[in-house]
Design brief:
Ribonuclease_T2_eukaryotic, globular, lyase, alpha+beta, signal, single chain, hydrolase activity, nuclease, 8-stranded mixed beta sheet
């Protein structure tokens, strides 16, 4: 009788460990959480500040990370909560390259990005922990090196207006793919304002064209801070160096 009881306890412990104590939480398995590619999203801090009412002083004058977003998926595992201690080994880089433009405390922004997008990206082994997800995003941000390459091809913020075609051609000449450029739509008497650039990545982390029609924009769920952005029109575009234009 004693051996049977012991066996029962061992079986019970095994199933508890399997379902409750897994090191990597299980991802939801549904069509809603299926995705095909990743967006590495850069946003222009000056434009982000222009779009928001809260105080936003001295935004960085370089493109920063908005996030790494699987398309067509969000909040794949709501039980997998954010733990900021996972970022301690590269916190300085997070603050510099992935800051919350609108708030001094960056943790809420990073939590949002992990819980909405990271828990879906974790389907890939290379992204299946918070540390891997944020480190891999930083790695590709440095590899793409958008700030340096725009300057090298003569596109820089300031009073000069650019034809969108010139910006596209410059990016395509550097990266050999077509990214997705998003703008704040023009108001009366003003030009559209460049605000966000998305690079598309395969699940193997190679750059690919972002060739979806404009109607597919909603497939990559926008975050609140830039939800007013849309695909830029082929017209004059402003790349602002000041919040008040």
């Amino acid at each position: 009788m004693k051996s049977v009881t012991t066996y029962g306890l061992l079986v019970e412990c095994f199933w508890l460990a399997l379902f409750c104590g897994s090191a990597t939480p299980l991802l939801a398995d549904s069509d809603h959480h299926k995705w095909d590619k990743l967006y590495l999203v850069h946003h222009w801090p000056v434009t982000v500040c222009m779009m928001n009412d809260n105080e936003c002083k001295d935004p960085p004058m370089y493109w920063t990370i908005h996030g790494l977003w699987p398309d067509k998926a969000e909040e794949c595992n709501r039980s997998w909560h954010f733990n900021v201690s996972e970022l301690k080994d590269f916190m300085e880089d997070m603050r510099e390259y992935w800051p919350d433009i609108l708030h001094t405390n960056h943790t809420h922004f990073w939590r949002h990005e992990w819980e909405k997008h990271g828990t879906c990206a974790a389907e890939l082994e290379a992204l299946n922990s918070q540390k891997k997800y944020f480190q891999k995003t930083l790695e590709f941000y440095r590899k793409i090196n958008l700030n340096s390459f725009l300057l090298k091809v003569g596109i820089k913020p300031g009073p000069t207006y650019y034809q969108l075609a010139a910006i596209k051609e410059a990016l395509e000449s550097v990266y050999n793919i077509t990214p997705k450029i998003q703008c704040l739509p023009p108001e009366e008497g003003r030009l559209q304002v460049m605000g966000q650039i998305k690079f598309c990545l395969t699940k193997e982390f190679t750059l690919r064209n972002c060739t979806e029609p404009q109607s597919d924009l909603s497939s990559a769920h926008e975050d609140n801070s830039t939800e007013d952005l849309s695909i830029c029109n082929d017209t004059l575009t402003y790349y602002p160096s000041h919040m008040h234009t």
